[in-house]
Design a protein that fits this description.
about 500 residues, mainly alpha, about 5% strand
């Protein structure tokens, strides 16, 4: 049975002693009571909260899974890319990563010399910095987390940070011995082999971004990793602690649906691609339109114009689009790395760098199968899907790579929207349509199903899609070393295409 782990406070520890000191505040335990083992779940929870809550939401819009539903307005700015530092899109994630996860890791490392514990902390530190770079490109790194010693750390470029945390992973793994983990670990149950596999998956993800950012020397490292499937974790890496009980919901469900406002409907690109490939996963988290009795996606950034296009401005409402079925996420785990994504990355390496079509096909099909299983499709559905003309393994190398990337995009829906957005930026798949939202509305035949669509209302000067998030305003207010403000269309370091 799933159970929510509340590692926000360990104040109850102060009440377990027979020698209670009335001068001790039970809500603020002494530092000696907060052990390394008790701190580690908070590290996992802080990172999961970022990936499964704020990033899940805004990256869901940027990956064109979500659109703002017609009868609400909370996320018009996300749909229309009307964002700058004043929007504070990343402030909570920035705090959770630096003041939460990374600070707790520092404290754990000061309290343990167990090599396995240190390695697990280093893996989570690499995950945290990967997320910072993929959102901001630059971030405080080598001078960060030094307290009053360096209160205003320098910001460093993303490539330096990526290579830094990769070196940290190598160093921590080199010191592993036969010692078991002593940390409380609700995510991977203290299984060191799983932690090694998770570390290797993070390496592979970062290697591919470094390679496509111009650091081709990482190609040999990527090839070495995929040479053995045993190098990686089994199943998924997920924070699976939520339940159907009130107060124990998945954070995205709790934060967005429990407010009682319907803000999320399906975006046109994901619906159009899943319909053209006859994908049974379309029903996993989408409901059919009440008006058409079919799956209908809203054109990106078009909530304020679609009514005019239809000639029913006063009557355009949620009945005309497919709404997100929030209840599917009530007890959903937060996924930090899915088996499906891992297999698609392996398939890419096998095809691009090893020229091994057989191994690439196997990994591609494992990636699709893993997501079909995760989303509970009917028995036999995946075999039929993999045999269909639009999703079977055939054609040129470029066609097969596009198939890998598009199926990864589909698989990451309602799993890890941050990684979906990052992979779209890295691979340029799905591609950006040459047709405008208005053109597509007038004549859907001008559109290639699944392509990204520039928002009909787009606040990015010069147009385009979101390539980064703005620096958090709290960083600029506290640290004069924060770089000059960036706009949404300025790319992160690995996005060079």
């Amino acid at each position: 049975m799933k159970k929510l782990f509340l590692y926000i406070t360990v104040g109850a520890l102060a009440l377990t002693s027979c020698d209670l000191d009335i001068n001790d505040d039970p809500n603020y335990p002494a530092d000696t009571d907060v052990t390394a083992g008790l701190l580690f779940p908070s590290v996992e929870n802080y990172i999961a909260d970022c990936v499964g809550d704020q990033m899940f939401n805004y990256a869901g819009y940027f990956a064109q899974y979500f659109e703002q539903a017609p009868t609400a307005n909370q996320y018009n700015d996300l749909a229309e890319l009307n964002l700058d530092e004043g929007s504070d899109l990343f402030v909570r994630c920035y705090r959770n990563l630096y003041a939460g996860a990374l600070t707790d890791i520092q404290e754990i490392l000061a309290k343990t010399d167990n090599p396995s514990d240190i390695f697990a902390c280093t893996v989570m530190r690499a995950q945290a910095f990967q997320l910072l770079v993929d959102n901001l490109s630059d971030a405080p790194y080598s001078e960060a987390l030094r307290g009053i010693e360096i209160a205003q750390p320098k910001w460093e470029d993303g490539k330096t940070i990526y290579e830094g945390v990769l070196a940290e992973l190598d160093a921590a793994e080199a010191k592993l011995s036969n010692d078991d983990m002593t940390l409380t670990d609700p995510m991977l149950n203290g299984d060191l082999n799983q932690w090694r596999g998770y570390a290797n998956a993070l390496r592979l993800r970062m290697y591919l971004r470094l390679i496509d950012g111009g650091a081709t020397e990482y190609t040999s490292k990527a090839k070495a990793l995929v040479a053995n499937q045993d190098n990686f974790f089994s199943d998924d890496v997920k924070w699976d602690v939520y339940s159907n009980a009130s107060g124990q919901y998945n954070p995205w469900y709790d934060g967005y649906y429990s407010l009682g406002t319907i803000n999320h409907c399906a975006a046109y690109p994901i619906i159009s691609y899943m319909k053209t490939t006859a994908d049974p996963r379309i029903k996993y988290a989408f409901d059919k339109s009440a008006e058409t009795k079919d799956y209908v996606g809203q054109l990106p950034g078009a909530k304020t114009t679609t009514g005019d296009w239809l000639g029913i401005s006063s009557g355009y409402n949620n009945d005309f689009v497919s709404l997100v079925n929030y209840k599917t996420t009530r007890d959903m785990a937060v996924y930090l790395f899915t088996q499906s994504e891992l297999q698609f990355l392996i398939a890419e390496v096998q095809l691009r760098f090893n020229n091994d079509d057989t191994a690439a096909k196997e990994a591609y099909e494992l990636g699709v199968t893993a997501d079909f299983t995760s989303k509970g499709t009917e028995d036999g559905a995946v075999d039929e899907f993999l045999a269909a003309s639009k999703t079977s393994w055939k054609g040129s190398t470029d066609a097969k790579l596009e198939l890998i990337y598009k199926q990864k995009w589909v698989a990451l829906f309602m799993r890890d929207h941050m990684e979906a957005w990052s992979e779209i930026r890295r691979t340029d798949v799905p591609a950006l349509s040459n047709a405008s939202a208005a053109d597509i509305f007038e004549n859907p035949a001008v559109y290639n199903p699944g392509d990204m669509i520039e928002p009909a209302v787009n606040y990015i000067v010069g147009g385009g899609l979101a390539k980064r998030v703005p620096y958090p305003s709290i960083a600029r207010s506290l640290n004069p070393n924060t770089p000059t403000a960036k706009t949404l269309n300025e790319k992160v370091f690995w996005d060079v295409k």
